[in-house]
Amino acid sequence: MNSEYFIIVSHERYLSNSDERRTFHSNMADYFLGIWAGRPKPFQFSEHQRRMFNIASADSEADRKVPAQPYIFTTNNAMQTNDVATIRYNLRKLSELPFQLIRAHREDDLYREVLFNYDFLHAKLSCMPLNLCVFDYESALEFVFDKEVNDIKFQTK
Protein backbone atom coordinates (compact mmCIF):
# COMPACT_ATOMS: atom_id res chain seq x y z
CA MET A 1 0.00 0.00 0.00
CA ASN A 2 2.84 2.43 0.80
CA SER A 3 4.47 1.79 -2.55
CA GLU A 4 1.22 2.70 -4.32
CA TYR A 5 1.16 6.06 -2.54
CA PHE A 6 4.80 6.62 -3.39
CA ILE A 7 4.11 5.98 -7.06
CA ILE A 8 1.10 8.30 -7.09
CA VAL A 9 2.89 11.13 -5.29
CA SER A 10 6.05 10.74 -7.40
CA HIS A 11 4.03 10.81 -10.59
CA GLU A 12 2.14 13.92 -9.50
CA ARG A 13 5.30 15.71 -8.44
CA TYR A 14 7.72 14.77 -11.21
CA LEU A 15 5.68 13.54 -14.16
CA SER A 16 2.52 15.62 -14.25
CA ASN A 17 3.93 18.12 -16.78
CA SER A 18 4.03 16.45 -20.21
CA ASP A 19 7.14 18.36 -21.35
CA GLU A 20 9.06 17.42 -18.20
CA ARG A 21 7.86 13.82 -18.48
CA ARG A 22 9.11 13.68 -22.08
CA THR A 23 12.48 15.11 -20.93
CA PHE A 24 12.83 12.45 -18.21
CA HIS A 25 12.04 9.69 -20.72
CA SER A 26 14.54 11.22 -23.16
CA ASN A 27 17.26 11.25 -20.49
CA MET A 28 16.57 7.59 -19.72
CA ALA A 29 16.69 6.79 -23.45
CA ASP A 30 20.10 8.50 -23.65
CA TYR A 31 21.30 6.29 -20.79
CA PHE A 32 20.22 3.08 -22.53
CA LEU A 33 21.65 4.30 -25.84
CA GLY A 34 24.98 4.80 -24.05
CA ILE A 35 25.33 8.34 -25.38
CA TRP A 36 27.22 9.62 -22.33
CA ALA A 37 29.36 6.52 -21.70
CA GLY A 38 32.98 7.56 -21.24
CA ARG A 39 32.50 11.22 -22.08
CA PRO A 40 31.49 14.35 -20.18
CA LYS A 41 27.85 15.37 -20.07
CA PRO A 42 26.98 19.08 -20.05
CA PHE A 43 24.73 20.39 -17.29
CA GLN A 44 23.77 23.63 -15.60
CA PHE A 45 24.11 24.62 -11.98
CA SER A 46 21.03 26.15 -10.40
CA GLU A 47 21.19 29.73 -9.18
CA HIS A 48 21.23 28.44 -5.60
CA GLN A 49 24.17 26.13 -6.35
CA ARG A 50 26.09 28.94 -8.03
CA ARG A 51 25.74 31.13 -4.93
CA MET A 52 26.44 28.31 -2.50
CA PHE A 53 29.64 27.14 -4.28
CA ASN A 54 30.66 30.59 -5.56
CA ILE A 55 30.59 29.47 -9.20
CA ALA A 56 30.78 32.12 -11.92
CA SER A 57 29.16 30.24 -14.79
CA ALA A 58 26.07 28.06 -14.62
CA ASP A 59 27.31 25.93 -17.55
CA SER A 60 29.58 23.00 -16.81
CA GLU A 61 30.21 19.39 -17.76
CA ALA A 62 31.43 16.26 -16.01
CA ASP A 63 32.01 12.60 -16.72
CA ARG A 64 29.11 10.92 -14.93
CA LYS A 65 30.81 7.50 -15.15
CA VAL A 66 27.87 6.12 -17.11
CA PRO A 67 28.50 2.55 -18.28
CA ALA A 68 28.25 1.58 -21.93
CA GLN A 69 25.03 -0.22 -22.82
CA PRO A 70 25.74 -2.96 -25.37
CA TYR A 71 23.03 -5.41 -26.44
CA ILE A 72 25.15 -8.33 -25.23
CA PHE A 73 27.68 -8.64 -22.43
CA THR A 74 30.36 -11.23 -23.08
CA THR A 75 32.97 -12.59 -20.73
CA ASN A 76 35.78 -14.93 -21.56
CA ASN A 77 35.88 -17.82 -19.09
CA ALA A 78 39.14 -19.28 -20.38
CA MET A 79 40.12 -20.88 -17.08
CA GLN A 80 36.72 -22.42 -16.45
CA THR A 81 35.40 -23.63 -19.81
CA ASN A 82 38.26 -23.92 -22.29
CA ASP A 83 37.95 -20.49 -23.96
CA VAL A 84 34.17 -20.50 -24.16
CA ALA A 85 32.68 -17.03 -23.98
CA THR A 86 29.68 -16.50 -21.74
CA ILE A 87 26.93 -14.41 -23.30
CA ARG A 88 24.51 -12.41 -21.19
CA TYR A 89 21.92 -10.20 -22.85
CA ASN A 90 21.30 -6.66 -21.61
CA LEU A 91 17.66 -7.31 -20.71
CA ARG A 92 17.14 -3.86 -19.25
CA LYS A 93 18.27 -2.13 -22.43
CA LEU A 94 16.26 -4.44 -24.64
CA SER A 95 13.07 -3.81 -22.67
CA GLU A 96 13.56 -0.20 -21.53
CA LEU A 97 14.94 1.45 -24.66
CA PRO A 98 11.76 1.09 -26.74
CA PHE A 99 9.62 2.19 -23.79
CA GLN A 100 11.71 5.31 -23.13
CA LEU A 101 12.08 6.32 -26.79
CA ILE A 102 8.35 5.97 -27.40
CA ARG A 103 7.45 8.10 -24.40
CA ALA A 104 10.14 10.65 -25.26
CA HIS A 105 8.54 11.00 -28.72
CA ARG A 106 11.92 10.34 -30.36
CA GLU A 107 10.58 8.60 -33.45
CA ASP A 108 13.77 8.79 -35.52
CA ASP A 109 15.82 7.16 -32.76
CA LEU A 110 13.06 4.60 -32.17
CA TYR A 111 13.11 3.56 -35.83
CA ARG A 112 16.91 3.60 -36.17
CA GLU A 113 17.83 2.01 -32.83
CA VAL A 114 14.91 -0.36 -32.18
CA LEU A 115 12.11 -1.07 -34.64
CA PHE A 116 14.24 -1.30 -37.81
CA ASN A 117 17.58 -2.26 -36.23
CA TYR A 118 18.63 -5.82 -37.02
CA ASP A 119 21.13 -6.09 -34.13
CA PHE A 120 18.55 -4.90 -31.59
CA LEU A 121 15.87 -7.23 -32.95
CA HIS A 122 18.23 -10.19 -33.08
CA ALA A 123 19.34 -9.66 -29.49
CA LYS A 124 15.79 -9.20 -28.22
CA LEU A 125 14.45 -12.24 -30.07
CA SER A 126 17.39 -14.29 -28.78
CA CYS A 127 16.46 -13.75 -25.15
CA MET A 128 12.78 -12.75 -25.05
CA PRO A 129 9.53 -14.09 -26.47
CA LEU A 130 8.31 -12.83 -29.84
CA ASN A 131 5.26 -11.19 -28.27
CA LEU A 132 7.52 -8.70 -26.45
CA CYS A 133 9.00 -7.60 -29.79
CA VAL A 134 5.52 -7.26 -31.27
CA PHE A 135 4.54 -5.26 -28.19
CA ASP A 136 7.24 -2.67 -29.05
CA TYR A 137 5.55 -2.09 -32.43
CA GLU A 138 2.10 -1.97 -30.87
CA SER A 139 3.30 0.50 -28.25
CA ALA A 140 4.79 2.69 -30.96
CA LEU A 141 1.41 2.78 -32.67
CA GLU A 142 -0.14 4.32 -29.56
CA PHE A 143 2.17 7.35 -29.87
CA VAL A 144 3.27 7.39 -33.51
CA PHE A 145 1.10 6.88 -36.55
CA ASP A 146 3.62 5.88 -39.16
CA LYS A 147 2.95 3.82 -42.25
CA GLU A 148 6.11 1.67 -41.85
CA VAL A 149 5.21 0.69 -38.30
CA ASN A 150 1.65 -0.18 -39.38
CA ASP A 151 3.00 -2.32 -42.24
CA ILE A 152 5.29 -4.24 -39.87
CA LYS A 153 2.48 -4.80 -37.38
CA PHE A 154 0.07 -6.23 -39.94
CA GLN A 155 2.71 -8.50 -41.43
CA THR A 156 3.35 -10.15 -38.03
CA LYS A 157 -0.26 -11.30 -37.59
Could you characterize what this model shows?
This protein is of the alpha+beta class and 157 residues long. It has helices at residues 2-14, 18-33, 47-53, 78-81, 91-103, 107-115, 118-127, 130-143, 147-156, and strands spanning 40-44, 59-63, 72-76, 85-89. The strands form two sheets. The protein has a two-stranded antiparallel ribbon. The longest helix is centred in the N-terminal third of the chain and has 16 residues, at 18-33. It is globular and about 55 Å long. The relative contact order is 0.11.
Keywords, please?
single chain; 157 residues; alpha+beta; two-stranded antiparallel sheet
What's the gist of this structure?
The chain has 157 residues and is an alpha+beta fold. It has helices at 2-14, 18-33, 47-53, 78-81, 91-103, 107-115, 118-127, 130-143, 147-156, and strands spanning 40-44, 59-63, 72-76, 85-89. Helix 5 runs parallel beside helix 8 (130-143).
Mean pLDDT reading: 86
> What strand order characterises the main sheet?
1-2
Q: What's the order of the H and E elements?
A: HHEHEEHEHHHHH
- Parts with pLDDT < 50 across at least 5 consecutive residues: none
The largest β sheet comes out as: 2 strands, antiparallel
Portion of residues in beta strands equals 5-15%
Number of helices, where a helix is a run of at least 4 consecutive DSSP H or I residues: 9
Distance from first to last alpha carbon: 39 Å
Query: What overall form do the CA principal axes indicate?
Result: globular
